User: Fold these one by one.
Assistant:
Number 1:
Amino acid sequence: MVQIFRPGADTVVRFVLASLATVPVFAVGGAYAVWRSPYVTGQGVTREQPVPFSHAHHVGGLGLDCRYCHTAVEKAAFAGIPPTDTCMSCHSQIWTNAPMLAPVRTSLAEGRPLRWRRVHTLPGYVYFNHAVHVAKGVGCTTCHGEIQTMKLVRQAAPLTMGWCLDCHRDPAPNLRARDAVFDTAWTAPADQAALGEQRLKEYHIRSPERLSECSLCHR
Amino acid sequence: MLPMPPLGPPSRREPLTSRREALTLLGAGIALAAGGCTKPSEEIVPYVRMPERLLPGVPVRYATSLSLGGFARGVHAIAVDGRPIKIEGNPLHPASRGATDVFAEAAILDLYDPDRSRTVTEHKSGIASWEMFERALAGPLARARSRNGAGFHLLTGRVTSPTLLRQIASLLRAMPDAVWHVHEPVDDTHATRGTVRAFGRSLRVLPRLDRAEVVLCVGADPLGPGPDQIRLASGFAERRRDPGRFGRLYVAESALTQTGIKADARRALPPHAQAALLVACANALGAGLPAPDASEAVRRFAEAVAADLTAHRGRALVLVGPALAPEHHALAHWINARLDAPVDVIEPPDRMDGRTPAGLTALAAALDSGTVEGLAILDCNPVLTGGPDLDLGSRIGRAAFSVHAGTHGDETAGATHWHLPLAHELEGWSDLRAVDGTASLVQPLIRPLYGARSIHEIVALFGESPARSGYDLVRETWHETWSETWRESRPAREAAAFEAWWRQSLHDGVIAGSAAAAITVADSAPPSLPPRMGAGFTVELRPDPCLWDGRFSNNAWLQECPKPISKQVWGNALALSRGEADRRGVGAGDVVRLSVPGRTVEVPVAVESGVADGVGVLTLGSGRARAGAIGNGIGADAYRLVSRAERWLVTPVDLAATGRTGAVLRTQNYVQVEGETAKLFRQIDLADLATATPKGIGADQPSLIEAWTGDADGHAWAMAIDTNACIGCNACVVACQSENNVPVVGPEEIARGRMMHWLRIDLYDAGTPEAVKAGFQPVPCMHCEHAPCEPVCPVAASVHDGEGLNLQVYNRCVGTRFCQANCPYKVRRFNFFGYADGQEYANLDAEPIRAQRNPNVTVRARGVMEKCTYCVQRIATERQGAERDGRAMNDVVTACQSACPTRAITFSDLARPGNPVSALRADPRHYALLEELNTRPRTTYLANLRAPNPDWAEDHT
């Protein structure tokens, strides 16, 4: 009787069977890994800006308060990007001829706005509110990272929904005293667990169930 | 059977793609798919100098006014980051009372209409500029001035603006022989002539429905569309909230109007029988006129109405429609004087001292005589609305120099030498007066999008003084008025005092104390009657409840807004009674040709309830040739039937079937549900109200689903809709569309039975086509506590939150439509196409339209289910404000609620003590829709009330 299959055919069949079981697992796992990777989330990505504004210098070095520029952060959903006027309130006095600041001077002279590249982008169906987070004792650096060390701003957190929910389901570890919200050097004290629980009550922060409802962030 | 083709070598065809190309495309596809995962690069563009106190992304409200037929309705326009996105009512304005109508709501879409004219054009050379126009105008203007203005004609719509009246007056002072014509398509000529007959001069009569209890409307539709709708409807509904002052509404009309739906006793009568009814009524009150030729039924009705009116002296009122003759209007004034009726008689707000503007016929005559050297047509469209016998389209060509200013390059713009782009009311300064004479300022929210100028700046071009800004002109008018009126008080620092007054007026949106004072008029004898109207088939023309006189026909929201009674969208139809249609051998959808000597119009037939025999009713404003991408060629142009002698009644009309059929698109189909109507739409006779008991939401019934408890710190949102107050005006429907970025689907999709309105107004009729006992029922999402849509969703896109909202999570939705199938209320809407997101109807994908969108509401993509959210963005905004400031939440007002002129919609938090919805749930009229399904809806209703005449058994519910 003539052999239909060669001796090596068994190996091929075993390999194919094994692949049928493993390839979908690896494909899904791979896709998930890519989906959560900084490549997709933009985490850690530094973006070039028209003016190389350094938070490290202005915040870490000079100690400017966040609210000097981001004026709406306590009042509105959007923290606000400073108008050219704000830059020129100092730079009409110091570094008046720095070539680095030429676009700022041109902007003011020509009345044409600076076009910054957005670093923290949320999808259109997410309605994040800065004012509420600040009022509830969530500090700037909790989400924005060590901004005082960043020469150009990068996205410190992945900004995925899972990351948001991590905190919404257990906000206590990130709750600060209200006067420490804008403190870039804040680190959790040793008794943060107890303080956090206390602040949950003090700030009237809702239950984790309510904080993870769809309508809280999506409309 | 065909023989098989012979086998041969395959023909050598070039493959569509070579292997190399296919691989390239595959690679590119993978690269693009992977690249698509990364976040798009977005820009943030801050101000160079930020306006003070501006918060990015936070809506700002400005008080301003919008006009309808020249009259103002005060509004609050809402802008986000300098972009007007929504119109709401101004509570301080008497013609708005915090509510809006469809036209005000839709005005925001008009602002962003891509078809608006963007540049000055000249009929031969096309695109021109303002400078070129000014140069071209200089010659004709100088010649006109040298002849004291002889040959110079100015045509406007109804003008109530004090600034414009002042400008026209000064123009006419400089050119005394110039002629000012006024043409308002939805005119009140008969009413005005009626006052001339009754009182000796032209006056305006304002009915006070808040004080009138027994009202007889003869062809009048006070609750229907119009500049005074909100004031009248609000007064009517407020009075009816008190069962002791409910009164009774009698209506006699040719076809159902919104007033007719609310009537307690209604008769469908052709116009000549309406006139007979009025005369019979007057005779019963002692007018002593020759007995009218009326049927026994009409006479019996008239006598009963007259008895009811007389029994309520001081609280009874008779209103007459625009189609009836001036003598009938005068007769109504005579009856009202007998009844001591609650009416305010005022000087017309559109009056200029010492000068009565000429009409359109005079202009046509002047054009015929060839004496017109210069013609300026400002913000009106006489070529469309003048009627075919004036034929202004060709007559305007006889003017030596003609110019049209308008927001669109419409029919009239095509006939004149020059066309000037006119600024939208949200783009320029102006002022207006309401129907009751109250003046209000119009302030711009945005700079003109396309280099247009306001009407004041355009009129200033014809004057001698150099061009002025609209702001200066308006401010100057009010400085003069202020100085005359308020100077007695001699404020110490006049400039500062005026500035404070001006700022207050701008802030409030009304000029305090500017309403016209009511005057007393002498009584007169009953007028002699006009000859009896001709017999034969009559066509009654009406302004369209959605398109008005046609000026809104390029507004997609209004085209797709279901007409209150017929629920027709995208077009008009001739309403006929079943009997009339049968007699003439035509059926619903048959296209008929209506002809009067020299003019014809072809229109599909709609067989409707409550239409009188011998009458057909057709609305104006459709069938335009130069409306724009939305309005062109939609429906039939009823202006073809208008003549200079008669605008509202055309008789006799020859009706002939064409053998063709046309589509009458409707959003509600006519269905008969035996015995169900009373359950779905609860109606109670006023006499039975005392014994009525409230019906709950069925929370006492057993259920396998756990009872809804909510959350300890939560709220429980609920809505109650008073069907007795609802007049079906659609303001809520368009307000919802504007607030929630609800897309327009277009006529093709409507024909497939698809629509997107989150809120619809259903019409229920418990009577017969001849004797209608109908009412309106607005139906938004019920936000059921046991929502049938939720368990069937395979991806949990339909879920409940702790505040009792039934949420639709767009990003989870995969479009199975199971929820829609399982929703007993049919309030879920599916994006079969990207109606708002890439596959918009007509030109609605244009860049300007996007600026209208509410940034607080997600624009839904193709394949996603959507529905009413109880304006979750407004709840969220209020909640976030409360969380930020550490206070309790204030009231949340939904878009539909804020728009409603009759306050039929109440929305509140059931968890708050003393909330209004809980109180309404205990009202004896309370009921829930389909409560037997155990859905436990959060949206519930109050039953409709009727107060039929106790003597007529046939009108009882």
Number 2:
Amino acid sequence: MILRAGELLGVPQGVPDPALHAGLLRYLLLALALLWVLAAGRSRPGLSLLAGVTFVLAAEGFWVLALGRPYGLFLDAALTRRAADMSVAAAGAPPGQGFLVDVPPAAEAWIPAATWLRPAAWLLLWPTLLPLLVLPVLGVLVHSLWPRREDAPVAATLCLLFSTGDLDAARGVGFVPGLWAHPGSALLLLLIMAATLVLGRLAVREVVATGLGAAAMASWLVVHGASEGLGLADATLLLTLDQVPWCLLAAWGWPRLAPAGRALILGGAALVLLSALPLGIDGWGSESFYRFGLLLASAQPLSSLLRQAAAVLGRRRALAGFAPASLSPALLVLAGAPTCFLTWWTPTRTDRLMDESREPIAERLRTAMAWVRRETPSSSVFLASPDYAPEIAVLGGRRVLRAPTLLVADDDDRRDRAEDKVLRGRALGKLGGLYGLTHVFIAPGDFLSFGIAGPEELEKRGRFRLRYRDSSELRVYELE
Amino acid sequence: MEYDLGRLGDAGTNFLGIDVHGLDVPAFLATARHLYPLLGLLWLGALLRIRRAGWLLAGIVAANAFAWLETNYPLQRIYAFGPSRDRVGNVALCQVVAAGNPPLQTWQVGQMHFEPFWGLLVAAVSGWNVERVLRLYPWFSLIMMAALAVSISLGLRPGPGERGGRRWEAVFAAGFATLLCSMPFDSTRPYRVPWAMTFLLKPNHALGLVMLPIVLRAFASIRTWRGRLVTGLLLHVMGWVFVLHMFYLVVGLAAFTALSMLRWPGEARRDALDSAVVIGVNLLVVSPYLVMLVAGYPAFTRSPLMTLDPASAHLMEVTFRHGFVFWLGLWGLVVLLRRGDRLSRLWAAQVVGGLALWLAYYVLSALQLARERDEIYYWNAFLLAAVAGIGCWDLGGRAAAWLARPPVAPAIRAAALGALLLPFTLPYWWNPASMDGYFTLSLPPLAAPLRQATDFIRGQTAPQDVIAGDPDFARYVAALAGRRALVGLTLPLPRDWDERWRLQGMLVAGPDPEAAVAAAARYGVRYLVVTPYLLSTYYSGTDLGRIGAQRHLQSVFFTGDPDGDYVAIYRVKKRES
């Protein structure tokens, strides 16, 4: 299993190191911004878009490369549960089985998708890698589908540069910072955006196209958010002052705004207001739709302002070679890229999971779990301590009897009794065939409350056959 | 240290004497952030009727006060007192003066002090009362915020015959300098939040910023030799307040002279003469202090720590890091240079000088001498913001002229711009719980043993008594009780460092009581403070029992658990005559 994005590129662990290389990142982004300015200024919209995408990928990719493991793995229970279900499903567990034996998997799209995602070695990394692509793809979508073609480059640039502002990030709903906590729903967001843009181009009355687009956004209601909601005060500020200056530019551009833009603003605003209530509607996506709507609405008025500024600056000898039409997107990039949120984003300081995910998974554990995945049947069920049960499921791809740090089954009492009997060397009796226990994973310090001083004690207690052992005394026993 | 960590939930009052130990801090802060925009918009709405620049200035001061109150209200101790060594040290420096000790000495007995001005000021304001200093200290942050806003607005006010719109521009500069010098995610950056790190943590340094507009105004007004002398003396006062700010200003004056030679040759001679005389007068008067500073402060001692942080994009930190404020600051610079009057050129030169100093840090870093990087960063941040206010006012005027005929009244322009900028002002996004590492650590009160021990020292010892013992605890003794220490951590080492530690050893372990008492008398040492930290770090071969049995020591105070955490105080018996 590949657990680090750096492994895909052959980059050694610890590279990049934010403590050493974050300064270089900022300079790199400045250089990429200048290349973007040149591409935009030379009336090469395709090249300009490519430069913008590169800028975004560099700004996000640095932090993903710095991770030593998939985002949040073994650090966040919900993310680890999803990874466990994915891993067990991909390894060929019987249908309807999640990582806890005889407990169905969570109803998440990632789990059935896990059986066909390729390459299989990247399985656990996909939820960390895919968010990288969301903003670039969105920029390409806007550039391709925005109906006002003369404003499309500016619209795409605005989306790439200003998808996240300091204020909405400070309020906890920043678009880019929220991508890794929403890897699957980010793809849904992308689909909804694409649908809204496409619907906005339909040859129907504008109000119908707007309504269709807003209706498409209703599908966001299936995404679960915090049950307590954003709160009305925060939602109000998110819709108004947090969006300065975009809300003002959008108001200016509203009369000439394309239906897709109106749909995003109206639908997004409605979703933000709903997410303010304790209804469990996700506020991150709601605010993102609204913000993208404002950015798209700002494209035309901003283009107009930039053209005027470009006309003035174009009289300078140094800029005489640039056409005003191409100077305006160049000015936007020049002013925006070095100062935007993405350039200065430091997720290791604001996102606990991003910071703690920099620590790699211990090599001895990876080796042991690779053995489990390779040498035990996919139908195996493991008994492991709370410290290692998640690893068995996630890295080993095998179901476990109990994993209380991730999920407690309804029949946990019965599972606890089964565990007790196995570890004390007693006959399982009626519990014998219930869970299909086949193996025990034990490490030094596990099961001390059962009087097991060390892993080697286990085989004295019953019919256990040692199948795996490493130098740190991680052991796998097969139940005979 | 254990003794500086209290517990959340312990009963305690804030700086207003209000019991806040049960306060729901997250809800309090969230309510403050929701209330601020409402109050701000109401204030700006009132500006449309009142139409006075003074009302806007009052609003700027009020906004700063709002953030200051929001931050300090939940705290059951002085902000950062304990979590920040600087904080404890600065309060200690003031307290020993308030107790009546010489202002030219630190809280380490017999050691010269480099920045005596602040301690003298605080002591004077408190009426030389140690307890009153502790009650008043949080207010100094607010006073400095207000003083800077007023100072900039007065320093940039139009002269006779100039346009009245410049008055509003000056207020805008004041607003930007205080409320827009910081960005929401500055806390994730190497230099943290300038507003908090300057006003809240180091109001003594903020006083140097307050003096900047005053000195520049005085310089711009120079007509005679008397004016040059007065300005030089003002600059020298700035040196006493904070010598680094004086240095930065001098560099700015050098940049001013260079700019004059390049672009205003007609003014160059006068500008060069004024700069030379002002700097010369300043150097003449302040030189003894500078010699003392150079001799005592390790400014030229190389250290691998005194290099630029590799995680910091140095050039971009003072430019693009400030977002739209940087672009407005650039435009403000253009406006000032185009205007060409003396005051405008002075301000522009200060920005240029500050940036030049920032660049010079590449060289200093290569020499491992890149000290006080944060101070030049804050200097640049405040300057850039102030000049950005000027740029913003100008652009606002151009936009208003483009949008509306006839011209819009300044008050309306100010209200509109104020509403636009409101979400970017600090109180709008400021959440000290997540953006200020000192805030959460300052919520609980000081640990009871610490308070009890220092209360005892304050009440039962004479102001001139010197305390030996735990060199870390000594900071708190100085800060809370105003008593000087024999040895203290965090201050530069005095020349007789070894001798002081020998005396410590004699006091703790004997074996010659008479010699110990005699040596103690030379430094004025009257008390010995023993804590677990002192024994485990420096005197692991002894214990409380053995120390208490020393003939030259008499136990006068004890609090805590002898087998755990405690503070034991012994009086050094006087020499028998």
